[in-house]
Amino acid sequence: MAVEFPEVLGHPNRLPFEGVLTLVDVPSDKAPSGSRGHRVVLTRTAAEAALPSLLGMAVDYKAGWDGHDARQKCGIITSAQLNGKQLAVAGYLFARDFPEMEQKIQIEGAMGMSYELADAHVADMRANIWTLTKATFTGAAILLRDKAAYRETSFRLKRTRPATPARRAA
Questions:
Q1: Whole-prediction pTM value?
Q2: In this structure, are strands 86-93 and 111-122 parallel, antiparallel, or unpaired?
Q3: Which residues lie below 8 Å from residue 156, measured CB to CB, with a gap of 6+?
Q4: What is the pLDDT of residue 102?
Protein backbone atom coordinates (compact mmCIF):
# COMPACT_ATOMS: atom_id res chain seq x y z
CA MET A 1 0.00 0.00 0.00
CA ALA A 2 1.54 3.31 -1.03
CA VAL A 3 0.91 6.92 -1.88
CA GLU A 4 2.70 7.78 -5.13
CA PHE A 5 4.74 10.96 -5.14
CA PRO A 6 6.21 12.22 -8.40
CA GLU A 7 9.98 11.84 -8.63
CA VAL A 8 11.73 15.18 -8.30
CA LEU A 9 15.40 14.58 -9.00
CA GLY A 10 17.61 16.22 -6.39
CA HIS A 11 14.71 17.51 -4.27
CA PRO A 12 16.46 19.19 -1.32
CA ASN A 13 13.80 18.30 1.25
CA ARG A 14 13.10 14.64 0.36
CA LEU A 15 15.53 12.14 1.77
CA PRO A 16 14.14 8.62 1.22
CA PHE A 17 14.11 6.13 4.09
CA GLU A 18 12.90 2.62 4.76
CA GLY A 19 12.48 0.65 7.91
CA VAL A 20 10.81 -2.06 9.87
CA LEU A 21 8.25 -0.35 12.09
CA THR A 22 7.26 -3.39 14.13
CA LEU A 23 6.70 -7.13 14.08
CA VAL A 24 3.26 -8.74 13.97
CA ASP A 25 2.14 -11.77 15.99
CA VAL A 26 5.35 -11.44 18.05
CA PRO A 27 5.50 -10.18 21.66
CA SER A 28 7.49 -6.98 22.11
CA ASP A 29 10.89 -7.27 23.76
CA LYS A 30 9.85 -4.71 26.35
CA ALA A 31 6.80 -2.67 27.25
CA PRO A 32 6.10 0.18 24.83
CA SER A 33 5.15 3.60 26.11
CA GLY A 34 1.48 3.74 27.06
CA SER A 35 1.13 0.01 27.76
CA ARG A 36 1.26 0.37 31.55
CA GLY A 37 4.32 -1.87 31.78
CA HIS A 38 2.87 -4.66 29.64
CA ARG A 39 4.63 -6.16 26.66
CA VAL A 40 2.33 -6.25 23.62
CA VAL A 41 1.52 -8.31 20.55
CA LEU A 42 0.06 -6.59 17.49
CA THR A 43 -1.97 -9.22 15.67
CA ARG A 44 -1.59 -9.64 11.91
CA THR A 45 -5.34 -9.03 11.51
CA ALA A 46 -5.11 -5.73 13.41
CA ALA A 47 -2.00 -4.68 11.48
CA GLU A 48 -3.60 -5.47 8.10
CA ALA A 49 -6.73 -3.50 8.99
CA ALA A 50 -4.63 -0.56 10.24
CA LEU A 51 -2.20 -0.38 7.28
CA PRO A 52 -4.16 2.38 5.47
CA SER A 53 -3.94 4.55 8.60
CA LEU A 54 -0.11 4.64 8.28
CA LEU A 55 -0.06 6.38 4.91
CA GLY A 56 0.61 10.09 5.22
CA MET A 57 1.42 9.85 8.92
CA ALA A 58 4.41 11.70 10.30
CA VAL A 59 7.70 10.33 11.48
CA ASP A 60 9.14 12.05 14.53
CA TYR A 61 12.19 11.91 16.76
CA LYS A 62 13.20 12.99 20.23
CA ALA A 63 16.48 14.61 21.19
CA GLY A 64 18.60 11.81 22.61
CA TRP A 65 16.97 9.29 20.22
CA ASP A 66 15.36 7.47 23.15
CA GLY A 67 11.63 7.96 22.64
CA HIS A 68 8.83 9.83 20.89
CA ASP A 69 8.17 13.53 20.42
CA ALA A 70 5.06 13.99 18.28
CA ARG A 71 5.89 17.71 17.97
CA GLN A 72 9.23 16.97 16.24
CA LYS A 73 7.78 15.77 12.93
CA CYS A 74 10.69 15.23 10.57
CA GLY A 75 9.24 13.10 7.78
CA ILE A 76 6.30 11.29 6.24
CA ILE A 77 5.36 7.66 5.63
CA THR A 78 4.40 7.01 2.01
CA SER A 79 4.22 3.21 1.94
CA ALA A 80 3.52 0.34 4.31
CA GLN A 81 3.37 -3.40 3.78
CA LEU A 82 3.57 -6.65 5.65
CA ASN A 83 6.55 -8.83 4.73
CA GLY A 84 6.17 -12.00 6.74
CA LYS A 85 6.22 -10.86 10.36
CA GLN A 86 7.69 -7.45 9.52
CA LEU A 87 5.61 -4.33 9.03
CA ALA A 88 7.84 -2.40 6.62
CA VAL A 89 7.48 1.32 5.92
CA ALA A 90 9.14 3.81 3.61
CA GLY A 91 8.90 7.51 3.05
CA TYR A 92 10.86 10.73 3.20
CA LEU A 93 12.67 12.72 5.85
CA PHE A 94 12.49 16.49 5.51
CA ALA A 95 16.24 16.85 4.98
CA ARG A 96 16.38 20.59 4.40
CA ASP A 97 14.17 21.32 7.40
CA PHE A 98 16.18 18.98 9.66
CA PRO A 99 19.76 19.06 8.32
CA GLU A 100 21.11 17.42 11.47
CA MET A 101 19.04 14.27 10.91
CA GLU A 102 21.02 12.70 8.07
CA GLN A 103 24.37 13.09 9.81
CA LYS A 104 23.05 11.95 13.18
CA ILE A 105 21.33 8.85 11.76
CA GLN A 106 24.45 7.82 9.87
CA ILE A 107 26.66 8.35 12.92
CA GLU A 108 24.37 6.55 15.35
CA GLY A 109 24.09 3.41 13.22
CA ALA A 110 21.74 0.93 14.89
CA MET A 111 18.52 2.94 14.53
CA GLY A 112 15.07 1.45 14.96
CA MET A 113 11.46 2.56 14.88
CA SER A 114 8.43 2.61 17.11
CA TYR A 115 4.77 3.03 16.24
CA GLU A 116 2.28 5.49 17.66
CA LEU A 117 -1.31 4.28 18.09
CA ALA A 118 -4.77 5.46 18.99
CA ASP A 119 -7.99 3.55 19.53
CA ALA A 120 -6.11 0.37 20.43
CA HIS A 121 -8.21 -2.55 21.64
CA VAL A 122 -6.62 -5.00 24.07
CA ALA A 123 -8.16 -8.49 24.11
CA ASP A 124 -7.58 -9.00 27.87
CA MET A 125 -6.33 -6.12 30.03
CA ARG A 126 -5.44 -8.62 32.80
CA ALA A 127 -3.05 -10.62 30.60
CA ASN A 128 0.69 -10.36 31.20
CA ILE A 129 1.21 -9.66 27.49
CA TRP A 130 -1.45 -7.49 25.92
CA THR A 131 -2.81 -8.64 22.56
CA LEU A 132 -3.80 -5.70 20.35
CA THR A 133 -6.71 -6.74 18.16
CA LYS A 134 -7.51 -3.31 16.74
CA ALA A 135 -5.63 -0.03 16.40
CA THR A 136 -5.16 3.09 14.32
CA PHE A 137 -1.63 4.21 13.51
CA THR A 138 -1.07 7.91 14.21
CA GLY A 139 2.63 8.08 13.40
CA ALA A 140 6.04 6.60 14.05
CA ALA A 141 9.28 7.53 15.77
CA ILE A 142 12.91 7.02 14.83
CA LEU A 143 14.97 6.00 17.83
CA LEU A 144 17.92 3.91 18.89
CA ARG A 145 17.07 0.26 18.27
CA ASP A 146 17.86 -0.69 21.87
CA LYS A 147 15.29 1.89 23.08
CA ALA A 148 12.51 0.45 20.88
CA ALA A 149 9.95 -2.00 22.27
CA TYR A 150 10.89 -4.31 19.38
CA ARG A 151 14.65 -4.68 19.00
CA GLU A 152 14.28 -6.13 15.50
CA THR A 153 12.99 -2.85 14.08
CA SER A 154 15.25 -0.89 11.77
CA PHE A 155 15.63 2.47 10.08
CA ARG A 156 17.96 3.42 7.27
CA LEU A 157 18.34 5.99 4.58
CA LYS A 158 17.69 4.48 1.15
CA ARG A 159 20.57 6.33 -0.46
CA THR A 160 23.11 8.89 0.51
CA ARG A 161 22.48 12.41 -0.65
CA PRO A 162 24.61 13.55 -3.56
CA ALA A 163 27.58 15.67 -2.65
CA THR A 164 27.30 19.37 -3.40
CA PRO A 165 29.12 19.98 -6.68
CA ALA A 166 32.36 21.92 -6.42
CA ARG A 167 32.25 25.46 -7.71
CA ARG A 168 34.32 26.27 -10.74
CA ALA A 169 36.83 29.05 -10.50
CA ALA A 170 35.97 32.01 -12.73
A1: 0.89
A2: unpaired
A3: 17, 18, 19, 105, 111
A4: 81
